[in-house]
Model the fold of this input.
Amino acid sequence: MPIFGEPAKTGAQGEGVFAALLNTKNVNEMASEARAMLDSANSGGFRVSGDAAEPIRKVPREIAEDVEKMSARLRRLAQKEPALGDHPYGKQIAEFQRRATAVESDSPAQVLEELRGVLLGADKALEVAVNKYREAEESAASSIKVEQV
Done:
């Protein structure tokens, strides 16, 4: 029977999977890549046919919808104050939980909103690439027609 060592640590002690994988730093890096992708598409750096792009574009749009729903659920959750008592410490912890869930810049709800923007940015880059492909195709077709006359 195999013997396994300690599981690999993914982040600081106490961080969960969410914090290890989907945090402000990682989402900012993804946003930077999505902007670079859009810049490249705008400058004609890459083009793709509509038929080839559609299944690719479908994925980020679907994920963006799911992410939006998750973020909305977290925001609704944060609106309900947990029953931690009427004493000052209970109120303080309840407020901390609300802010940590949906208000702070590194809260799950905020990070999910940023991720949604990244996904929509990637979709926009593909949309631009499809339009550039279509323009190049139409230009090539019109130049062939002109030469045939």
About this structure: Residues 108-148 form the longest helix (41 residues). The helical segments are 17-21, 24-42, 50-79, 88-103, 108-148.
